[in-house]
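Handout, page 2. Input:
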Amino acid sequence: MSLKNFLGFGSDTDKSETHQVTAEEAVASVVTSNDTTTVRRIIAELGTLEPDQRRFLAGFAYVLSRAAHADLEFTAEETALMEKTVIEIGKLPEAQAVLVVEIAKNQSDLYSGTEDFVVTR
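Output:
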C-alpha cells in the first residue's frame, strides 16, 4: 500500500481494491527491529483485538486516565479502579487490562495538554 493510498488520496480504482489486514499483519506493521521485547509483547497482546475494540478501549482508558489524573498524579487506588473498570466494561483479561491502563496513564501523563480534547471528542 502506498502512502498516498494510506492517507486516502489514491485514485478511485485504488480504493476499490480492499485488503483485510490480519492481526499478524497489523502487529508486523507496527513492530520495528528497534523495539524491545516488552514493547513487542504489548503490541502482540493488543494486536489480537478487533480494530473497533482497540479503538474503543484506547479512548475509554484515556478518558478514565483523564479523571484519575485531574490532580496530576495517579494513586494505586485509582489505577486499580481503572483496571477493574476496563476488565468489566472492556471485557478484557486482567493482563490486557493492565497493559491498556498503563499505556493510557503514560499517554495522559505525557500528552494530556494536547490530546485531551481530541481523544474525548
